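Appendix B. Chain record.
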Amino acid sequence: MNIRAVKEGKTGVLVPVHETGISFPPSAAPVFYNPAMELNRDISVAVTSVFTKKLSGRRNIPIGDIRYLDALAASGIRGLRIANEVGVHVTLNDWSEDAFDLITRNTEHLGLRTKVDATRKNANVIMHEQRFNIVDIDPFGTPAPFLAAAARCAVHMLAVTATDTAPLCGAHLHSGIRKYSAVPLNNEYHAEMGIRILLGKIARELAVTDRFMTPLLSHTTRHYVRTYLETGKGAKKADEMLEKVGFISHCPSCGFRESFHGIAVHIDSECPRCASGTLVAGPLWLGKLHDRDFCGEVLMELERTEPGTMEQAKKIIGSCMDELDIPTFYEQHLICKKLGVSASGINDLINTLRSRGFAASRTHFSGTSFKTDASIDEIESILPMLR
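Structure tokens predicted for this chain:
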């Protein structure tokens, strides 16, 4: 396996290359390495840095004694950066012998032998064998087969990436049902649907062992969903967490939607607005996707460290921080097309909604989407006035 040196953040690592010197397509490489995920890793390092400082202060644990597991490490670049730039003790695990060898070589190359352990095990095995303060699951595809073990393994924080957005967002309906034990809907807010289906699955896995989660940051970017969850143990808090799991009833005819909290609920099949048939998604997470204060600290960390994708990362985090804590968003262009009117600037719409006493915000999901507590009737009455 030929390698070359790359630098992300403040860490230089060795990654696979073709014999010609051109990087492998990620899925064809002997060891998976995707340079396009640098943004994901930059945010991960900043989030982990902020969280470990808070954890160290609350629990009086030295940063170097905090244990972090990347259970599907591949090239190991994320965990190597976290060991080098954050200073926690990192375990990098991958079943691939090539990956294990490259991780070992990078550990020596960076002088991190006292901070990094390399293991070659099935990811679920190592998560059942040990407990870690922080567990990161970043598979090639769905994280579903690893969530039960990860929910037991992560003592204080669980980070999960899902790249199977088609099943999560309803484009591959039956695959989504099989993997996540939930029904997703492929509609205008399918990007948020994916996050909430994933979080609903994780919440149910945590609850099995009386554990709970608090979302710190969740975002959909490009082809993947990423979430960071503070975790803890306690039956009462697990019960309170499950109260934030439920269903969304959506009318594809008129755009009306309504949330129902609970695992067993009664939902009418007829839309209360237009009497058309409704579709139901869930069970899924209906609670907050982000902690605003935590996101603010991550922004400051990004400004302090100035990683390579800082501006993109700051835009995502800032948008997440400013989003309303309301399940589902509206897509302005879809509503305008239905009404036969031209779309105005999204800020004009949001300012008008606020001037009428409604809460409203942009979202990180798209530049033309918005969240509001105004009803679809009120939105449709406002849009024609903004032409």
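Further analysis of this model is presented in Appendix C.
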